[in-house]
Amino acid sequence: MGEFNMEDMPLPALFEQAQKIHLTATDSGDVDQEVVRKGCKALEKCDEMISKLGLFSTNETKEDISTTNLKYLLVPYYLGELTEKVAQDDRMQILKASQAKLKEFISFCEAMELVPEEELQTSAPDGPNSLVDRRALKIARFKRQRAAESKLLEIKERKERRGRSTKAAALSTPIEAGEEDVLDDDGEEEREAWFTTISLAVCKAFDLLEMLKKEEEMLRAFKERQSKDGNKEFYQDVLDDRAKRAEAWHRDAAARVQYTRPAEPITCATFAQDVLEGRASVSQMHEHKHQPLIFGPASLVGGNPTSERERMAAQVFQPSHRLPTMSIEEAGLKEMEIMNTWQERNVKLMEEANSAWYKESRKPGPPEEDDEDDDAAQDKARAWDDWKDDNPRGAGNKKLTPCG
């Protein structure tokens, strides 16, 4: 941030510089404390000048405030948010100063009818203070904050589009003297943007005020405990509490280790659903049996029917189709078992086929028998050849030939 002289600057320029410092401090977490203090001084100077000029009055409403002066309503909010970021040894003083400026901003917005009715009801002393009401209020506040941010983004985009259209029109058609203000007449849009910014600031101010109140309560309790027991005893209690938490965590880890071991896979979807919903444990997996569904009254489903009337009633409530006797997982396991048995059998057959005794030829018989068999085969082959010579192919079909 550049150096600037606050005494010689007018209110608009001073507010612009302070707004830039506030934007830089809120966007980045680590900001130079000298810049933060300079921003606080600039905002305090703006607040003093606004009071001297009498820009606002409690008798006015939001419709009576001019569009140019609407932005100065944010000075107490900027000052309260920037004061909270000041680093100082006495944190309690910083918290009180920041809360005072935020309350001043909320009070003035309430007088201007810029605070929602539900916020006023909750902030009242006799208002609802239950957890459910506070949660509902936070949700409603968050929705208002999101709506305000979306509206500001929409106004910004709309203004940029209009600016591009104006530049394009200026390039195509020359603008005569006195027509510049007509092309840039967006007073209503600017007023809407400032009211939306104030609404967003109100939501953030309520959230920041609640956070500062909680921090103040914690700091006050810490100081009371510190003054009562002393630093040494207080720090020793903190260390003892941490040691007890660590011991409890390690003690519970021994009980949790049995659940970290991998369990056998669950093959039944029904049993897996029972485990997930807490009706069964993983250790009961081997004892689980899938039972088919039984329809009907609880008196019939829960026990075995004894009389003929109960048996007939049980048959009435049964479905018309046959129910499955096993689950899909059990059927798959059964098929897997059959497939494994078939593969083992094929492996055994292949081993037998490749064994030595299977490859051996048949035992040779006496040489006289082999010679006799060979002579008979040769005689049969010669007789067949002679017959084929005497009876050529097609010799018995002379009537079918053209010249027959």
From TrEMBL:
One of the GO BP terms on file: TOR signaling
Comp. bias intervals (Basic and acidic residues): 377-392
One matching Pfam family: TAP42
GO function terms (MF aspect): protein phosphatase 2A binding
Family: Belongs to the IGBP1/TAP42 family.
GO cellular component: cytosol
Name of the featured protein: PP2A regulatory subunit TAP46
Region span, Disordered: 357-404
InterPro entries, sorted: TAP42/TAP46-like_sf (IPR038511), TAP46-like (IPR007304)
Record field: compositional bias (Acidic residues): 367-376
